[in-house]
Each structure stands twice: as structure tokens, then as C-alpha cells.
């Protein structure tokens, strides 16, 4: 998914849809600012809001996946690249062995520290249904 499309979905989720009268998702001009993501056609999106959106989308995706409990803190969660991923409960967050998780954790911490703060320094998501 392109960044424009992702931000368009976020704006729609927020009910901020006025830009749609004149523009489509691919027209959106997006800049990373210290206080949030600035969209020329729709204004500022704070990192706190962006963090809520990322959690919401991750939750939505995770809620349809199969989960197997393998130990006290260890779960196997169904995936697409490989059939199962090890996910570890680290107390207040979940850590996944997949590349997306590792890449996000590394890059967000370095490239978008304000977003990382807004995520409470947690990239892992909570799984809704646990066996
Ligand atoms: Zn993962």
C-alpha cells in the first residue's frame, strides 16, 4: 500500500474527508514534521493519532489470525509468509519474530522517534482472542 493511500484511509477513519471533494489519495502531499504528519490537503495528523491508527489496523489484522498457545509466554500466530510465527508476551507488549515487526521496531525508533514515543515505545500489538 502506498503512503498516500494509507494516509487517505487514516483521514477517512478520522472523518476528515473534505479533501476528497477535490483530490484523490494519490494527490496527497505528505511531509513528516516534528509534531506529526502534515498533509497539505487535510492538515496535521499528530503522532498520537497515527499511533492509535497503527494499533487499530494491527488489531484488526491480528483478530482474524489463528493462535496456538505453546507456553507460559509463547504463542504461535498464523501468518502469510510462513504458516506460523512465534509471538512472545513480554508483559505489557507482544514481540513477534517476523520481519515486519523487526523492521518496524528498528526503523520507527530511529526515523520517527516521536511516533515511537506515542506508541509507548511498543511496536507489538495486543491480540484480542487468546486460547
Ligand atoms: Zn509479526
What does this structure look like?
The protein is α+β, with helices and mostly antiparallel strands. It has one domain (3-118). The protein has four helices and seven strands; from the N terminus they run αβββαββββαα. It has helices at 3-13, 47-62, 99-111, 113-118; strands spanning 30-32, 36-39, 43-46, 67-69, 74-78, 84-89, 94-96. β5 (74-78) and β6 (84-89) form a beta hairpin. The two termini are 31 Å apart. It binds zinc ion. Zinc ion (ZN) is lined by residues 85, 96, 98, 100-101.
**SSE arrangement, N to C:** HEEEHEEEEHH
Could you say how many structural domains there are in total?
1
| Contiguous runs where pLDDT drops below 50 for at least 5 residues | none
Mean pLDDT: 86
* Annotation, overall tally of beta strands: 7
Question: Residue share in helices?
Answer: 25-40%
